[in-house]
């Protein structure tokens, strides 16, 4: 089996699905689901804990907060992990473990949205009503943050936009790191009425079957694209652009709904936790040893968000959250409601703090890495909480 130098092997291992760790012009970094309050699940269901006999989804608020911490960690540690001069050091290993160990974050965000959106529609709400309500909610942040980061690049990167360049970057979902997720969520929103109708009338067997097929499709896209890339066969089978980014994630969207009412026993939780640790260890091992592994290994077992190991890890994180994150609902909801704003602003905050702390190419020490991550999270949440109190601006946060 062919092997490539470390840099090339890593590039293939991350093809098409792994976030670009650098807060640069056009990567596809980690992201966060569009705002869907765990305190008010769509579909007519009352808020968690409001009615006896109804399942509680309060844990999803805290899960969303933990997931955005993982997303910020991915971007904060990315440049450290890709610094070959640090390879093998304590800070490099820490960055690699945190970065790759957070691969589940994007799938979990999608699963949370599916869990809250794919239940029965609100009484009297048709597809038009859903689109009017939800698309209006995603449109403002989508437009605002794209405009913000175009201006940000003009300010800090001497970016000279043209209409052709701006439109082209938007169509391929590369205006700025992580903004692709707005397009991903927008595409999934368009499917909600259709998926709701199917899930409402399908048997459990059919729901599981179709969800499995959708997950297999996402994995198939990743494997096929990676194989084409390795064999240099030309264009990818499915290029992930603004109109298509959501397609490989439909399986995660449905999986969130399928798993939302599953409650693990104590013994099952122990087994799930052990398997989760093993799955994350495999991802870290595969990423850090990519240069020494056959190239086709990463093709057959993609170590990224659309890979089978990441899917397993995401499902286990989602299941373990229930029963672990059920308390502190009011605080969790308040923090969860600010996640969209944190997602939007954290890359600009990270860029500024890297330069303020004198580490424009990423942290090179453990204290520096901890400082950068902690400060980015604190500042991003603070900005989001303040912006949420400002009329009009709060619609983007």
Structure in words:
This protein has 15 helices and no strands. By secondary structure, it is mainly alpha-helical. Residues 1-52 have low confidence and may be disordered. It has one domain (6-35, 77-325). 61% of the residues lie in helices and 0% in strands. Helix 4 (105-117) packs across helix 9.
Descriptive labels:
397 residues; mainly alpha; 61% helix; globular; disordered N terminus
Protein topology:
Layout: H1 6-13, H2 59-81, H3 90-100, H4 105-117, H5 127-156, H6 163-171, H7 180-201, H8 204-230, H9 250-259, H10 266-288, H11 295-300, H12 308-321, H13 329-336, H14 339-356, H15 366-387
Helix pairs in contact: 2-3, 2-4, 2-13, 2-14, 2-15, 4-9, 4-12, 5-7, 8-9, 9-12, 10-12, 14-15
The coarse overall form would be globular
Low-confidence stretches: 1-52
The helical percent reads 55-70%
Count all strands and give the number.
0
Name the average pLDDT.
87
SSE topology string: HHHHHHHHHHHHHHH
Number of domains: 1
Radius of gyration: 20 Å
Q: Give the biggest sheet.
A: none
Strand content: under 5%
How many H/I helical runs? 15
Tell me the structural class: mainly alpha
């Amino acid at each position: 089996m062919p092997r490539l130098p470390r840099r090339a092997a890593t590039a293939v291992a991350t093809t098409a699905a792994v976030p670009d760790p650098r807060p640069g012009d056009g990567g596809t970094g980690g992201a966060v689901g569009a705002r869907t309050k765990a305190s008010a699940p769509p579909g007519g269901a009352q808020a968690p804990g409001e009615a006896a006999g109804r399942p509680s989804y309060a844990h999803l608020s805290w899960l969303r907060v933990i997931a955005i911490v993982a997303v910020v960690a991915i971007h904060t540690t990315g440049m450290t992990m890709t610094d070959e001069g640090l390879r093998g050091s304590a800070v490099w290993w820490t960055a690699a473990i945190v970065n790759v160990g957070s691969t589940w974050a994007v799938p979990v965000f999608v699963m949370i949205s599916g869990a809250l959106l794919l239940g029965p529609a609100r009484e009297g709400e048709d597809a038009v009503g859903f689109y009017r309500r939800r698309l209006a909610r995603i449109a403002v942040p989508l437009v605002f943050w794209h405009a913000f980061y175009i201006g940000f690049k003009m300010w800090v990167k001497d970016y000279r936009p043209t209409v052709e360049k701006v439109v082209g970057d938007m169509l391929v979902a590369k205006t700025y790191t992580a903004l692709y997720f707005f397009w991903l969520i927008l595409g999934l929103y368009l499917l909600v009425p259709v998926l709701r109708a199917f899930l409402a009338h399908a048997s459990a067997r059919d729901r599981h079957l179709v969800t499995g097929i959708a997950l297999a499709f996402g994995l198939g896209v990743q494997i096929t694209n990676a194989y084409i890339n390795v064999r240099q066969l030309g264009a990818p089978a499915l290029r992930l652009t603004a109109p298509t980014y959501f397609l490989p994630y439909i399986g995660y969207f449905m999986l969130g709904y399928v798993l939302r009412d599953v409650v693990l026993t104590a013994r099952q939780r122990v087994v799930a936790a052990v398997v989760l640790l093993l799955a994350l260890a495999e991802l870290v091992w595969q990423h850090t040893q990519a240069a020494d592994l056959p190239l086709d290994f990463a093709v057959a077992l993609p170590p990224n968000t659309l890979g089978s190991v990441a899917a397993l890890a995401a499902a286990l994180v989602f299941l373990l959250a229930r029963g672990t994150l059920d308390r502190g609902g009011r605080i969790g909801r308040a923090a969860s409601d600010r996640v969209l704003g944190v997602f939007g602003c954290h890359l600009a905050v990270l860029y500024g703090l890297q330069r303020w702390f004198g580490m424009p190419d990423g942290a090179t020490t453990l204290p520096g890495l901890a400082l950068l991550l902690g400060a980015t999270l604190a500042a991003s949440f603070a900005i989001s909480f303040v912006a949420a109190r400002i009329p009009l601006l709060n619609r983007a946060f």
